[in-house]
Amino acid sequence: MDEKGKIRKRYRYADMMTPYEKLKSLSNAESFLKPGVSFDRLDEIARRCSDNEAARRLNQAKAQLFQLINKSRQRAA
Q: Does the CA dihedral 29-31-34-39 come out positive or negative?
């Protein structure tokens, strides 16, 4: 706790994981995958681009989606 009584969570750098890494670390992780999907296939997809590149692509897709939504609202009004 800090001086104001607020609980501060501390995450060690060694314990930080992406959601995908956390899923893979679970003991029965294979049981959470859809039929026909394997971690080998997902690893191949994950290696196609870096985390930063994936985030950039996600942000671009969001921006395009919001532009599309905004255009359709302007026409409707």
A: positive
